[in-house]
Amino acid sequence: MAEIVDDKVSYFQAVTGISDHDLCTEILAAHNWDLQLAVSSITANPSSPELAPSAAAAAAAPPPLLEADLVAPPPLPQQQQQQPGIAWRLVTLPFYVVSGGVGLIAGSIRLGASVAGGVLSRSLSLLGLAQGGGDRLLELPPSAADAVDFVAEFEREFGAGRGPRFAAEGFADALQRAQREYKLLFVYLHSPDHPDTPAFCGGCLCAEPVAAFIDENFVAWGGSIRRTEGFKMSNSLNASRFPFCAVVMASTNQRIMLLQQIEGPKSPEEMITILQRVVEECTSSLVAARIEAEERVSNQRLREEQDAAYRVALEADQARELQRREEQERREREAAEAERKRKEEEEALARAAQEAAEKEAALTRRRQEKAMALGAEPEKGPDVTRVLIRFPTGERKERRFHSSTTITSLYDYVDSLDCLTAEKYSLVSNFPRVIYGPEKLSQTLEEAGLHPQASLFIEIEQ
């Protein structure tokens, strides 16, 4: 009983900053040793002459509170159902602590945790509990700074490299790391002024078997109740006796599940026995959660691979479809081009045929006109010249002309016959060789030396 009384007095001193032990004892006794009610009475009456200067300053100007920051405290015993005071609301973590056994662990691990560190350093500094962690090259979040300072103080007091490897990060980060590593979170709340603290830390936590067991099976986090994060956790875990340790794990909706509380001094054997039992109870659930997470990762990877394969197949199908459309368009273009050329060729043939027909008709008319221009063939007589014309085909044609007829009439005669298709030609005599070209067309047959008879052949001009 005496230990419980001393613990409550020490805790009350830490919260209110009142250093007078007897005065704290009287205040607690006046409130039936109800810590909650005693702290509320102090912080709710800032004008009380019994307050120490630091406590009065803290109560005089509390920071404004948002409605979202006010969370319900854990259920109190029947005699402690009074309305919690402002100090409780200031330091309560945004966590709901759920006491539960192994039956709740598997579901909690599967659902995960969404936890966040509180930001009540200003409130705690007003209460005189927050202490500076020294200058740093990089500014750390308040929770991480508290953790770093605690680790440094613990190593300074009990020796570097001794005790569990406490995480140098805020409680929320340590809780998330434990969840990622599928381990439980070992929580140690350090009360520097408690008389049992040095012996517990030096003889139990720093014992090599205990430290090795905690490092192997847990993520360890520690905090001093004189600092913001440790003070918040002491309220959330309802720590009333020191030394205080707990085993927790993440739950849902910013909840943490309290699996084991370890209060008061413990020997290394007792500590290992308690922690061993918790680990044995939770191992199957942690292993199942790890296997389930690995299966989820494997299934997710499989889905991603299937999705990637589907995308590749889809892209290949799209490429083939694009190639098919392009090939079809190319064939259609080629067919259209071939059709256009066919029509053009047909039109060209039609034009050529028409032109040939027109040309033939023109030649026919020309022959008729030439034949009409020649007139009737004269009878034999002294003024009549007989002309023999040989064609390139070997064909011969003979006709009589008046000796006064010009050379032009000989060309008209050839043109009137259907024996020559060439348009450019010349009439030539062999002996002597004379070409009767354009310059002689106006000469008469007699003048050209072709009377009374002549033999000419046709020479095609190239």
**Structure classification:** alpha/beta
Name the shape in a single word.
rod-shaped
Largest beta-sheet details: 5 strands, mixed
Individual helix count: 14
Summarize model confidence as the mean pLDDT: 79
Please report the distance between the alpha carbons of the first and last residues. 143 Å
What is the N-to-C succession of helices and strands?
HHHHHEHHHHEHHEHEEHEEHEEE
**Rg measurement, Å:** 61 Å
Residues in helices, as a percent range: 40-55%
Q: Ranges with pLDDT <50 over ≥5 residues?
A: 45-96, 98-137
The side-by-side strand order for the widest beta sheet comes to: 1-5-4-2-3
Q: Which band does the percent of strand residues land in? A: 5-15%
The number of distinct β-strands equals 10
Helices and strands in order:
Layout: H1 2-16, H2 21-30, H3 35-43, H4 53-60, H5 86-91, E1 96-99, H6 105-111, H7 121-126, H8 142-158, H9 171-180, E2 184-190, H10 197-205, H11 208-217, E3 218-224, H12 228-236, E4 244-250, E5 255-263, H13 268-374, E6 384-390, E7 396-402, H14 407-416, E8 425-429, E9 434-436, E10 453-460
Parallel strand pairs: 1-5, 2-3, 6-10
Antiparallel strand pairs: 2-4, 4-5, 6-7, 8-9, 8-10
List the keywords.
462 residues; alpha/beta; five-stranded mixed beta sheet; 14 helices; rod-shaped
Description:
This protein is an alpha/beta fold. It is 50% helix and 14% strand. The strands form 2 sheets. It has a 5-stranded mixed β-sheet with strand order 1-5-4-2-3. A 5-stranded mixed β-sheet has the order 7-6-10-8-9, with helices on one face. The longest helix is centred in the C-terminal third of the chain and has 107 residues, at 268-374.
